[in-house]
Design a protein that fits this description.
1 helix, mainly beta, C2_domain_sf, CAR1-11, C2_dom, cell membrane, nucleus, single chain, 164 residues
């Protein structure tokens, strides 16, 4: 792990079209991992389109690591079933935060960068990194891998970026 360069707030907003792992539904929860830091949402019972709206704080360091997530179906009497996984490179977010400082961007709602789906992320669609309310933010829909369907929406904020 590199030098700590700031704080990251990750809001797990919702899931859509998640796969069925029980008889006709699933009881999903999400595990987020950034380096050796881990966070977990609450379980949403009998739901394929859950709304979590839970926020977690992580320390971020450079070089920026991948934010990884796994979705599971909670089971009472056996091991939890996998419902897919996804990852997102945080490098574009960190680079945008640095660029904003260098350029002195202060205009509310300024788009700092567009990120497109490619091999170092699981984006379901293009995503913009913006300057909003004094923070560098990115709203993303991540497509779950290793399953037939499923997307997870995250809202990510980069705060307290050091000026290295």
């Amino acid at each position: 792990m590199g030098d700590k360069c700031g704080q990251l707030k990750v809001r797990v907003v919702q899931g859509r079209r998640l796969v069925i792992r029980d008889f006709n539904s699933s009881d999903p929860y999400v595990i987020l991992k950034l380096g050796n830091q881990t966070a977990r949402t609450k379980v949403k019972n009998s739901c394929l389109n859950p709304v979590w709206n839970e926020e977690f704080d992580f320390s971020i360091s450079e070089p920026a690591e991948l934010l990884k997530l796994e979705v599971f179906d909670k089971d009472r009497f056996k091991a939890d079933d996998k419902m897919g996984n996804a990852h997102l490179s945080l490098q574009p977010l960190v680079a945008s935060g640095r660029l904003r400082k260098i350029l002195g961007v202060t205009s509310e709602g300024t788009t700092l960068r567009k990120v497109i789906p490619e091999s170092d992320n699981c984006l379901a669609a293009d995503s913009s990194i913006n300057w909003v309310n004094g923070e560098v933010v990115q709203d993303v829909w991540l497509r779950l891998c290793d399953v037939d369907s499923g997307d997870i929406e995250l809202k990510i904020k980069l705060i307290n970026l050091s000026s290295k």
